[in-house]
Amino acid sequence: MFDLKIPPELIIQCMHCGMCLPVCPTYNLTFLEKSSPRGRIRLVKEVEDGNLPLTEDFINEMYFCLDCQACQTVCPAGVKYGKIVESARIKIFKLGKDKQAFMKKLIFKFVFASNSLFKFFARIVRFYQKKLKPLAFNFGLYEIIPKKLLQIEELAPEISDKFSDEILPEVLKPNGEAKYKVGFLTGCFMNVMYSKINIDTVEVLLENNCEVYIPKEQVCCGSVMAHYGDIETAKKLAKKNIVAFSKYKLDAIVVNSAGCGAFMKEYGELFEDDKEFREKAENISRLTKDVNEFLCEIDFKRPDVELNLKVTYHDACHLAHTQRITAQPRKIIKSLNGIDFVELNESTWCCGSAGIYNILRYEDSMKILERKIKNILETNAEIVLTANPGCHAQIEYGLKKANANIKVMHPVTILNLAYKLSKKSMEEKVDTA
Amino acid sequence: MDARVIKRLEEIVGRENVLTSIENKITYSYDATPSLASLPEAIVIPRTTEDISQILKLANEENFGVVPRGSGTGLSGGAVPLPNTIILLMNRWRKIIEIDTENLTALVEPGVITAQLHQEVERKGLFYPPDPGSMTISTIGGNVAENAGGLRGLKYGVTKNYVLGLEVVLPTGEILNIGGKNVKDVAGYNLKDVLIGSEGTLAVFTKILLKLIPKPQSSRTMLAFFDSIKTAGKTVSDIIANHITPATLEFLDNVTIKCVEDYAHLGLPTNVGALLLIEVDGHPAQVDEEARKIEEICRKNNATDLKVANSETEAMNLKTARRSAFAALARVKPTTILEDATVPRSFVPEMVEKIQEIANKYQIIIGNFGHAGDGNLHPTALTDERDKEEMKRVEQAFEEIFDFALKLGGTITGEHGVGLAKRRFLEKQYNEAGIEFMRKIKRALDPNGVLNPGKIFDLINPRCEGRLPLSREEIEKYKDLWV
């Protein structure tokens, strides 16, 4: 059913020039060739040619990779490195060679697989965070819980009081004329942990004359599973979303999470060999837009208000490297009056979140995060803006650990804030008049 | 390699610094050179200069080869291991030890990345000009070993013009210092120039003292299009004849322009014969004057179009065409063979035309771009190494290209080095006496031939008595890796 052979054209396109080495976060930790894109492609080649079995070290290297795809941005030969590593992971997963497979399957099949299950788990976590954690703290239970578990628990951002899909109706109409009909992906993480960002996104879309459709049948986009080799679960989820969004005739499907947007843009490719489904999938991919991308395309309304804030921007890998979107979020941020925008050194360097990498490989992830936090602190910014929930949580965690009083926000949040403030000042002006 | 020897290596550098897993061996079997690979016996990471000295002494005692390696971006196979060799991995030696703003020097470890050095010295208003194409990852040690060039070669020279001193370990293990911060120094033979460009065969560099210059105050970038490579070549000659030395004077031929346009959609005209990217730098008044003169020369030579950048961003945009040249060519076919045949600059048009003629004769695609100002061309063959028949034709074509370059008084390699890839061509450029001269130096310094054996030339008596690299079983398993 699934061909485990990795297409040789993908592999042979690499001319092993080494230009990927300076941008690879893992190579820059070990300074060993096998932890670099060039080295990993060579290892995959030897596996495919039958010269190397699926050794423990090979498997480790495939999962040590963050799949941040920074290498693809600098690759002169246009090698699709992400595809190569993801294909190798599918092979490892299918052949049952992945040691963490049981845990991953559990997570993929039971946590992400349906919206209601995901929310069910989120509710448990919320109950724990709100009620149990303070209790446990009071009773000194923390001292007996293993340290590593605690660190991972700390990684989880607080679950929102209300999930966004419970607040938002299926169809929302703007106040004025509706110029665009857009779908909106609530996502899984975004829905339960950053439900406020979802609401900000919808409000920004409404402000910009969009009629917003939020199909109730939508589920997790499937990217996390696909990146870890569980392509079947990913496809099942993708199918549900394609059906859900094909219900309406839309001008765009807006996504505010970089990872989800990147994966939905690949739906077409995912169903390449599925005659029945291909066209629909391709259509969904074509319509998918990151919220920053979409707002710039429709020439978003500029809010008329002064925000005296010093901010910086972290490029999410799946926005900068996979979707090649770097200018649009900056354009939105810089359009706000009074904003002091400082470029972040190594802004396109991965923060180490990488889906659930920070849970599966906590230690490695923290080494990578350290570099990011150091760069952020050097900017002296009050706010770090980023457009991906994984990065958002990871950077928040890193800043908390460093005792830094810096907020993490999504660009739409600050834009929405500006809209609200400009409305308020407008009303005040009207009042005084 | 004998477990006993591995153990002795471990005693020198510590267990964690000797890597022998098959995954590590595979990933140190190549550099950036197409179609060359061979497994090393081990990868050894030295911590100190003393470690390197001891490793080399052991190599002489136990008869194995040592291949120094930085980032492995060489294009002549210089860092590809041969049987019975270990990799000496220098990429963790990344310290910039000192930037002396009074004597204008930088003292660095060999693993410092070229572009990082650029950044650090430019922050202090200083300038280290050599900028090889792989500067974002190439190491200074590798640059010195290959005497690397780059885009700024015409005005500012190449790596050898910036090396003031070296701390080295000789093949037999002795440690010594050569040169220093003195501008003038004629004590004894000019030893550093013997070691620069020796491709890792005569010494391992452990510290490098580089000359810095003040950073040019301003610059101006221009892009000019021409009907033919001839008129572009004439323009180059005229610029030089007018006593202007641009910092950058680069050309792209028609094949390359078409590939760049296909890839980057810059709106370049695809019907032109060639384009020139020209950049002048220096004092603002001088830059203005020179840019004006160059414009005049371009127009006199019937440039079909001329674009002058008025801002930093515009300059970046103009440079994109040249910067994307390699990437654009590399995407066309799986295998990209980038060569560096070089001729005296007055012969550039003739050489470019001949290369196209040869490409047509062998029915292969060759894009041509490079440093028009210093005659260093990059004929780039686009092919597929799985197609053995076409690879044969590519080889024949390059043979003819090198022959023609030599006929014009050129060289087989302007900046990539001989390594493994061009050994047989070196014999065309030098007669027996010339190669024997090099062999004598090598034999005198490295009597057992332990340091980067087999590179540049063969010693007449090959050391075939060395132990076989892997067990019979392993050779069978990995035989495809051996070329």
Automatic annotation (TrEMBL), chain A:
Coiled coil: none annotated. InterPro entries: 4Fe4S_Fe-S-bd, 4Fe4S_Fe_S_CS, Cys_rich_dom, Glc_ox_4Fe-4S, Helical_ferredxn. It catalyses: (R)-lactate + A = pyruvate + AH2; glycolate + A = glyoxylate + AH2. Binds 2 [4Fe-4S] clusters. Pfam families: CCG, Fer4_8. Its cofactor is [4Fe-4S] cluster. GO terms for molecular function: 4 iron, 4 sulfur cluster binding; glycolate dehydrogenase activity; metal ion binding. It is an enzyme of class 1 (oxidoreductase). Component of a complex that catalyzes the oxidation of glycolate to glyoxylate. This is Glycolate oxidase iron-sulfur subunit.
Automatic annotation (TrEMBL), chain B:
Gene3D superfamilies: 3.30.465.10, 3.30.70.2740, Vanillyl-alcohol Oxidase, Chain A, domain 4 (1.10.45.10). Belongs to the FAD-binding oxidoreductase/transferase type 4 family. InterPro entries: FAD-bd_oxidored_4_C, FAD-bd_PCMH, FAD-bd_PCMH-like_sf, FAD-bd_PCMH_sub2, FAD-linked_Oxase-like_C, FAD-linked_OxidoTrans_Type4, GlcD, Oxid_FAD_bind_N. GO terms for molecular function: (S)-2-hydroxy-acid oxidase activity; FAD binding. This is Glycolate oxidase. It holds the Pfam family FAD-oxidase_C. Its cofactor is FAD. PANTHER family: GLYCOLATE OXIDASE SUBUNIT GLCD (PTHR42934:SF2). NCBIfam families: glcD. The keyword Flavoprotein applies. Residues 36-215 form the FAD-binding PCMH-type domain. GO terms for cellular component: glycolate oxidase complex. Keywords: FAD, Flavoprotein, Oxidoreductase. The lineage of its organism: Bacteria, Pseudomonadati, Candidatus Kryptoniota, Candidatus Chryseopegocella. SUPFAM superfamilies: FAD-binding/transporter-associated domain-like, FAD-linked oxidases, C-terminal domain.
